């Protein structure tokens, strides 16, 4: 039995973040155990008109190459995905991504609520949702969907966040299982990795 | 919280198909679900009330389609795409044809048509090009024909135009009227707008360039496959097809009848009949 009462039934990790989340994401990706068994699906707020550079910046220190999926691309174990600029990114029941150019949600495209909400629908209790620093409430509803469908919810410790609006909105919207600093999230993912060895 | 299950979504798409011959049965599920939920919320309808209204009130279908289809777009979306169009693709077409034809498939409210016409005008070849812009939604086609857009959208459009490195001032192309930017009619002298459904519609013409950017993302793979066959048949040999920057054709049956001309901007060329 591990510290966080983990098991190997989880099928995916989904991460949302906005203002102030970049460093945290870089840290998580750079300390990810080699051969981490689950797909990591990330939706981070980003400049709408800048298509290039972000995924490269995240990949520099990442253990795994980060990719922006194409529409209808299959989700593979151990891959790290980032929602592309100016598209919403959904997870579909056949375990593939679908992109869309629908209206912005919470002033955002990609919107974290869409990626988290559709992931919750598909993975149900086999999903871990992590919400990091950010300046608006996008992601709070998505975290509620994850909790309501039996998934595990984690937010970054608000005091550690550059801007704590996003984790606080999630804390107000639903039950959050763990409040963690980025270092603890890293430890958590290492613990999780061990369950699959 | 409003929700709808997949069985009900299937009942809705089946009803629309049987009664109105619009085929949404192969639409991508998560966005189709969001669109239907959006309509239910907007119109304050339960699933049963929505089904009843679609069954008993045929006039509701146009309004329904207008909300169901995604009509959010911008002028010169992906400015780098438009630069490649201007500097590589259009000149390549003109090597062989002085006059040529473009199809905007799923043109929505017409922003891409406006962009194309501005680009062709700045290239001095607007007279030589025939453009056909189609959409399945008659309401949105009427809006596209007006070429009138909220002035608040112009900030983003102008930014894109500047990144495209247009040769004029963007404001030269429209006048302000009651909070709208109304684009100059002479830009559209060679454009015809037509209702056409990519899913159920026939091949209606042959083109040198087909643009269908961020339309097929709303289709599942089976439907993408069928629609690509239609584009293939609608293109002259060595004609070009442009799709959205994060779309892909590689899993389609007809993919090997095209070559990739620009992978970053997703521009393909038909090389085999």
UniProtKB/TrEMBL annotation, chain A:
The active site is at residues 18, 45, 138. Keywords: Chemotaxis, Hydrolase. PROSITE patterns: CHEB. SUPFAM superfamilies: Methylesterase CheB, C-terminal domain (SSF52738). InterPro entries: CheB_C, Sig_transdc_resp-reg_Me-estase. It catalyses: [protein]-L-glutamate 5-O-methyl ester + H2O = L-glutamyl-[protein] + methanol + H(+). CDD domains: CheB. Its EC number is 3.1.1.61. Residues 6-185 form the CheB-type methylesterase domain. Pfam families: CheB_methylest (PF01339). The keyword Hydrolase applies. This is protein-glutamate methylesterase. It comes from Ohtaekwangia kribbensis.
From TrEMBL, chain B:
GO terms for biological process: methylation. It comes from the Bacteria. Signal peptide: none annotated. InterPro entries: Bact_Chemotaxis_MeTrfase, CheR_C, CheR_MeTrfase, CheR_N, SAM-dependent_MTases_sf. Coiled coil: none annotated. Keywords: Methyltransferase, Transferase. Residues 1-273 form the CheR-type methyltransferase domain. One of its GO terms (molecular function) is methyltransferase activity. This is CheR family methyltransferase. The keyword Nuclease does not apply. The keyword Zinc-finger does not apply.
């Amino acid at each position: 039995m591990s510290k966080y009462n983990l098991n190997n039934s989880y099928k995916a990790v989904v991460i949302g973040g906005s203002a102030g989340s970049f460093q945290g994401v870089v840290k998580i990706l750079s300390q990810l155990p080699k051969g981490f068994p689950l797909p990591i699906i990330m939706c981070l707020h980003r400049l709408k008109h800048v298509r290039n550079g972000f995924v490269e910046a995240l990949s520099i220190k990442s253990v795994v190459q980060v990719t922006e999926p194409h529409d209808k691309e299959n989700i593979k174990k151990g891959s790290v995905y980032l929602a592309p600029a100016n598209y919403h990114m959904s997870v579909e029941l056949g375990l593939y991504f679908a992109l869309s150019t629908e209206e912005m949600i919470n002033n955002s495209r990609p919107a974290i609520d869409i990626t988290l909400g559709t992931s919750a629908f598909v993975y149900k209790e086999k999903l871990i949702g992590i919400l990091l620093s950010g300046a608006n409430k996008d992601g709070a509803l998505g975290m509620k969907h994850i909790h309501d469908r039996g998934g595990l919810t984690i937010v970054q410790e608000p005091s550690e966040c550059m801007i704590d609006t996003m984790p606080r909105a999630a804390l107000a919207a639903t039950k959050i299982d763990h409040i963690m600093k980025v270092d603890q999230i890293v430890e958590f993912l290492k613990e999780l990795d061990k369950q699959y060895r | 919280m409003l929700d709808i299950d997949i069985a009900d979504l299937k009942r809705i798409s089946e009803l629309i198909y049987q009664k109105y011959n619009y085929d949404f049965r192969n639409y991508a599920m998560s966005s189709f679900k969001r669109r239907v939920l959006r309509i239910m919320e907007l119109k304050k309808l339960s699933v049963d009330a929505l089904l009843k209204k679609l069954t008993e009130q045929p006039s509701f279908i146009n309004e329904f389609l207008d909300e169901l289809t995604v009509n959010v777009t911008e002028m010169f979306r992906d400015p780098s795409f438009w630069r490649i169009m201007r500097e590589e693709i259009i000149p390549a077409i003109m090597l062989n044809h002085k006059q040529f034809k473009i199809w905007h498939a799923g043109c929505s409210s017409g922003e891409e048509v406006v962009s194309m016409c501005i680009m062709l005008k700045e290239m001095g070849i607007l007279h030589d090009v025939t453009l056909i812009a189609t959409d399945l939604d008659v309401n949105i086609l009427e809006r596209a024909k007006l070429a009138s857009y909220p002035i608040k959208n112009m900030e983003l459009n102008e930014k894109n135009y500047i990144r495209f490195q247009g040769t004029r001032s963007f404001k030269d192309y429209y006048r302000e009227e009651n909070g709208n930017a109304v684009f100059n009619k002479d830009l559209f002298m060679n454009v015809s707008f037509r209702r056409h459904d990519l899913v159920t519609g026939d091949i209606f013409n042959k083109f040198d360039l087909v643009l269908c950017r961020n339309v097929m993302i709303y289709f599942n793979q089976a439907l993408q496959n069928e629609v690509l066959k239609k584009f293939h048949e609608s293109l002259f040999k060595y004609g070009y097809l442009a799709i959205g920057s994060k779309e892909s054709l590689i899993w389609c049956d007809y993919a090997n009848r095209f070559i990739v001309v620009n992978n970053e901007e997703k521009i393909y060329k038909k090389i085999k009949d």
